[in-house]
Amino acid sequence: MRFLKGHGTENDFVILPDPDGVVDVSAALVAQICDRRAGIGADGVLRVVRTKQSPEVAEQASAAEWFMDYRNSDGSVAEMCGNGTRVFARYLIDAGLENATEFGVATRGGVRRVRVEDNGDIAVDMGKPVVLGESVAYVGGVEYPGVHVNVGNPHLACAIGDPVAQLDLNHQPGFDPGVYPAGVNIELFNPVGTSRAVMRVFERGSGETRSCGTGAVATAVAAARLSGDTLGTWTIEVLGGTLTVTLDEDTSYLAGPAVLVARGELLLAE
Ligand SMILES: N[C@@H](CCC[C@H](N)C(=O)O)C(=O)O
Asked: Which residues bind substrate (predicted)?
């Protein structure tokens, strides 16, 4: 099977082109591919399938020719991946599968419109984030209150007083399973002024990653609430680079670099 490797602010993905939807990507195979020693190594897998060949999203086929079948590195399925959508778009353009500067991508969370910006970055319309209340995360025995935000997938974005650089995110942070029965992506951030935040993230199904697009949107929402606002443009600094999040009245946008770094032949099999 052919594969490519790409990343968006170092949130890295193995891309598996499967236009006719014939490849059975089991959780075990995904975990093997994402293994950083025994596999290629990645935070997740993006299978590229024609939307009309994908029964679970076939109703999106009129708005998006290609379905991003996203899997976390442990093989679990997620509804949405912001950086994944941007890297997926980069692949479609590079492979000549999309020629316009704006097009739709089908995801389990619905169609997302992507746009190639003048500087080459890729922006994605992430939809309107939904604030569902508040909850708490526990890291290293410390309780951090945060905002429960749904960006297609579940997030808990916590502004913290301690520098995020000092956190030990080698272990799963605690959270309330009553609030998040299907697990949660946890962002810990330091607001810097009125339009910038420094963020780290522990992703559901992948552990600590160097960036998370949906997490950046959730962080912008939580940071904006703290500054007494709900709209505006936020710079979110992550371990792997810088993302820009714009919160509009009706939707939100995530922008940043998305690059392909390798292509090859996958020899792994179950
Ligand atoms: N890294 C992604 C989010 C991937 C999915 C997440 N781990 C989940 O299980 O919801 C992003 O860039 O948004």
From this structure: 11, 72, 82-83, 153, 185, 203-204, 213-214
